[in-house]
């Protein structure tokens, strides 16, 4: 073939390439319109073909380079063949050598179809499209061929960019890609939220398990009720405080129940008629002043019930009571047994707990207020004090035991001294054991009683401060003590009841004790 013929053929082919590029442009437009909307995986996805951002078209250019390197295929009739990238594998060769108009149309259609296929392949295989034709034929030295090749290259680039952009867009939105994308981003936002919530629950459980494994129990949240402190209708300000208060109330209720049962037992006591008559005759117990006035007593006096006209008592009683009309004089105080005075006179001792009214009773009996000191404060009398009542009787004021404002060692010393005195004292004719009517007998009282029983010391129970309780209760107290001491041998009955304040029962006690003086005389 001559050179002119070859040049002619080349020019012709270049013209075909140019016209084909126009066709391709049309085909692209058609493809865009045809594939503007397409469904993928059941999801409506809009594929915008015009979107030309993102891809740099590296793969496309690589494809072009590859195509350059490869040897150009030739058709059977000697014309060079144009090979499409995706056709390379199948080796399907399309010849353009002697192409006519209908054939060219068919070719353009096939290219359009190829473009379609490339769209699909690019999106499904996630590989950048290689559906471009190799530009081997266009690499010619002529300027026309260069221009046309440039056109074709631009078209190819645009197609690559559009495919890459589409694929990338699709990858991001739906399918995701394996190229460095976060797996969580592949999923829908609803699923990711659910997973994050599940993860939080899992983390909390694992933390609790760790705490249990380490032995620390997870702290339970306390239910705290906050109430307006200025709202007086709401009493519960704090659960903890309320719990403490309820516990205290329950404890109080229990204690009250026990006390009530004790009270019930006490009220069940039936005093003997002798005790009841004794209480009534001497106006013992808590009495109203009007009651005392109606009985003929002068309530203006300090101890009205002791100021009874002599006419009301018998002659014998008057003689006996005269013993206590003698002058009361203090003559000895002892802190230890070695300092006890010699027993010249018969002695009557007054023992009992601190503040029970021992010193007050001595004053009431002798009507000589101020000789023996008294005090509201327990523990005033700290030594054994000896008083002479004339030349007929000796009265002894003992320190009290039990609670007192003094050191423990000192109190122990008093107690030991009292025990020694009541158990060893020669000339001791009677111990008046004073019991506070309000409190009754206490263990230390029983202790002293047992000691006196062992020492065979005569003792008599004297209930003091009887003006503090009701007459019936006083009778019950007396009855209970009498019952409890029935088996005792050294006890002297009856139980005496006095009030140093009102003077009730004082005269009777004088009568009982003056007999000792008389016997002592004998
Ligand atoms: N209401 C009333 N109070 C009394 C009676 N006897 C004594 N008191 C009061 O009881 C308090 C104690 O009296 P004291 O005579 O000092 O008692 P005590 O047993 O000698 O006390 P100590 O010396 O500490 O052991 C004083 O405040 C007296 O006024 C009484 O019969 N009735
Ligand atoms: Mg005293």
Structure write-up:
Keywords: GTP-binding, Magnesium, Metal-binding, Nucleotide-binding. There is one protein chain. The strands form two sheets. Strands 3-5-6-4-7-8-9 form a seven-stranded mixed β-sheet, with helices on both faces. Strands 1-2 form a two-stranded antiparallel ribbon. The termini are far apart. It has helices spanning 3-34, 58-69, 87-90, 101-125, 143-175, 183-186, 189-213, 239-267, 273-281, 289-294, 315-321, 358-366, 408-424, 443-455, 471-484, 506-521; strands spanning 37-40, 43-46, 328-334, 347-352, 384-389, 393-397, 428-436, 459-464, 491-497. It has three domains: 3-185, no CATH class; 221-268; 273-521, P-loop containing nucleotide triphosphate hydrolases (Rossmann fold), CATH 3.40.50. The protein is rod-shaped and about 185 Å long. It has 16 helices and nine strands. With 522 residues, the protein is an alpha/beta fold. Helix 14 links the parallel strand 7 and strand 8. The structure holds guanosine-5'-triphosphate (GTP) and magnesium ion. Guanosine-5'-triphosphate is lined by residues 354-360, 374-376, 378-381, 400, 464-465, 467-468, 499-501.
């Amino acid at each position: 073939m001559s050179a002119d013929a070859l040049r002619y053929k080349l020019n012709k082919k270049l013209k075909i390439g140019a016209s084909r590029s126009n066709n391709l442009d049309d085909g692209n437009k058609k493809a865009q319109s045809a594939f503007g909307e397409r469904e993928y995986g059941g999801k409506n996805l809009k594929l915008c073909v015009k979107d030309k951002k993102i891809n740099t078209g590296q793969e496309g250019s690589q494809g072009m380079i590859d195509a350059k390197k490869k040897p150009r295929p030739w058709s059977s009739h000697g014309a060079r063949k144009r090979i499409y990238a995706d056709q390379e594998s199948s080796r399907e060769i399309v010849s353009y050598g002697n192409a006519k108009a209908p054939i060219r149309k068919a070719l353009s259609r096939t290219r359009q179809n190829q473009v379609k296929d490339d769209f699909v392949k690019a999106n499904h295989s996630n590989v950048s499209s290689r559906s471009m034709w190799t530009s081997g034929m266009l690499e010619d030295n002529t300027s026309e061929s260069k221009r046309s090749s440039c056109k074709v290259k631009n078209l190819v680039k645009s197609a690559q960019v559009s495919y890459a952009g589409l694929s990338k867009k699709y990858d991001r939105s739906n399918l995701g890609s394996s190229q460095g994308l976060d797996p969580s981003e592949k999923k829908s936002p609803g699923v990711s939220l659910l997973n994050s919530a599940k993860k939080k629950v899992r983390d909390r459980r694992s933390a609790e398990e760790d705490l249990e494994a380490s032995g620390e129990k997870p702290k339970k949240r306390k239910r705290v009720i906050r109430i307006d402190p200025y709202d007086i209708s709401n009493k519960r300000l704090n659960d903890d405080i309320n719990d403490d208060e309820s516990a205290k109330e329950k404890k109080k209720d229990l204690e009250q129940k026990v006390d009530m049962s004790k009270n019930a037992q006490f009220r069940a006591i039936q005093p003997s008629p002798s005790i009841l008559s004794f209480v009534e005759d001497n106006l013992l117990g808590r009495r109203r002043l009007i009651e005392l006035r109606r009985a003929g007593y002068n309530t203006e006096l300090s101890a009205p019930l002791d100021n009874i006209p002599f006419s009301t008592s018998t002659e014998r009683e008057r003689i006996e009571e005269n013993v206590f009309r003698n002058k009361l004089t203090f003559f000895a105080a002892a802190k230890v047994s070695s300092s006890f005075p010699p027993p010249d006179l018969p002695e009557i001792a007054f023992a009992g707990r601190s503040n029970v009214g021992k010193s007050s009773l001595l004053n009431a009996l002798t009507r000589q207020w101020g000789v023996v000191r008294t005090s509201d404060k327990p523990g005033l009398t700290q030594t054994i004090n000896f008083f002479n009542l004339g030349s007929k009787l000796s009265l002894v004021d003992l320190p009290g035991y039990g609670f007192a404002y003094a050191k423990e060692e000192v109190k122990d010393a008093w107690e030991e001294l009292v025990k020694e005195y009541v158990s060893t004292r020669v000339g001791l004719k009677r111990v008046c054991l004073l019991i506070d009517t309000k409190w009754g007998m206490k263990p230390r009282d029983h202790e002293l009683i047992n000691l006196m029983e062992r020492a065979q010391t005569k003792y008599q129970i004297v209930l003091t401060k009887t003006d503090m309780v009701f007459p019936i209760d006083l009778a019950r107290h007396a009855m209970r003590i009498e019952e409890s001491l029935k088996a005792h041998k050294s006890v002297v009955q009856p139980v005496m009841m006095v009030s140093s304040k009102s003077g009730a029962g004082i005269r009777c006690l004088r009568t009982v004790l003056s007999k000792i003086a008389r016997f002592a005389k004998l």
